[in-house]
From TrEMBL:
Gene encoding the protein: Mettl23
GO CC, any one term: cytoplasm
Signal peptide: none
Record GO biological process: methylation
Keywords: Methyltransferase, S-adenosyl-L-methionine, Transferase
Listed Pfam families: Methyltransf_16 (PF10294)
Listed name of the protein: MET23 protein
Length: 198
C-alpha cells in the first residue's frame, strides 16, 4: 500500500507518458519542458535524454520527493537537470522566476480531487507565459465520478484525448514493464482554449 508520499513510486501512468515522449522524440530537442509532480521523474528523464531542456519539480513541502528527483537525474547521467520545489496552486519565487516552457508534463497528478484546481491554476499560470504551451498528462482512471471538465471551462482551457494505440501504449507490457496493462490509463493534451494549438 503506497505511503502518503506518492512521488516515491513509479506509477503506470508515468510509463505511458514516457512512451508518448519516446514516440515523439524527434520533436523534443530544444523544447523547454517542465515536469510537475515529478516523483521518480521517468517522463522528464526521457524528455531530457531525447534532447529537451528539462526542469523537474515536485512539491516544496516534500523534500524526500525532490531528493528522489535529484537521485534519478544522477543515476541517469543527467546531473545538469534542475530540480525545483513547486507546490500546485501556490505562487512562489520559484514559480515566478521560471522561464516560459513549451511542454508541461504530469503523470498521475490527477490523483486527489482536492488538488485538481490547484494543478490547473498552476498550469494556467505557466501557459499565460507561453500561450502555445501544452500540458501532456496521463492518469489512471480510479473513479467514473471525477471529472476536470468544469475546471477546464473555468480556467479557459481545452483538452484533446489522445488514444493510447496512437503511440503504441495500449500493450499489456510496455517498455519491459507489466504495469500499464493492468490499469485503465488515459492521456490528454491540455492547452489554452483560445490557443491555435501550434
Amino acid at each position: 500500500v503506497p505511503q502518503p508520499q506518492y512521488g516515491l513510486y513509479a506509477w503506470p501512468s508515468a510509463v505511458v507518458l514516457a512512451q508518448y515522449l519516446w514516440f515523439h522524440r524527434a520533436g523534443l530537442p530544444g523544447r523547454r519542458v517542465l515536469e510537475i509532480g515529478a516523483g521518480v521523474s521517468l517522463p522528464g528523464l526521457v524528455a531530457a535524454k531525447c534532447g529537451a531542456e528539462v526542469t523537474l519539480s515536485d512539491s516544496e513541502e516534500l523534500p524526500q520527493c525532490l531528493e528522489n528527483c535529484r537521485r534519478s537525474c544522477l543515476m541517469n547521467n543527467l546531473p545538469h537537470v534542475p530540480v525545483i520545489g513547486l507546490t500546485w496552486g501556490r505562487v512562489s519565487p520559484e514559480l515566478l522566476s521560471l522561464a516560459p516552457v513549451d511542454i508541461i508534463l504530469g503523470s498521475d497528478v490527477f490523483f486527489e480531487p482536492k488538488d485538481f484546481e490547484d494543478i490547473l491554476t498552476t498550469v494556467y499560470y505557466l501557459m499565460e507565459k507561453n500561450p502555445h504551451a501544452q500540458f501532456w498528462t496521463t492518469y489512471q482512471v480510479r473513479s467514473a465520478d471525477w471529472s476536470i471538465e468544469a475546471l477546464l471551462c473555468k480556467w479557459k482551457l481545452k483538452n484533446i484525448h489522445v488514444p493510447l494505440q496512437s503511440f503504441n501504449a495500449d500493450k499489456e507490457h510496455l517498455a519491459g514493464s507489466s504495469l500499464p496493462g493492468r490499469h485503465t490509463i488515459e492521456m490528454m493534451i491540455i492547452s489554452l482554449a483560445n490557443s491555435d494549438g501550434t
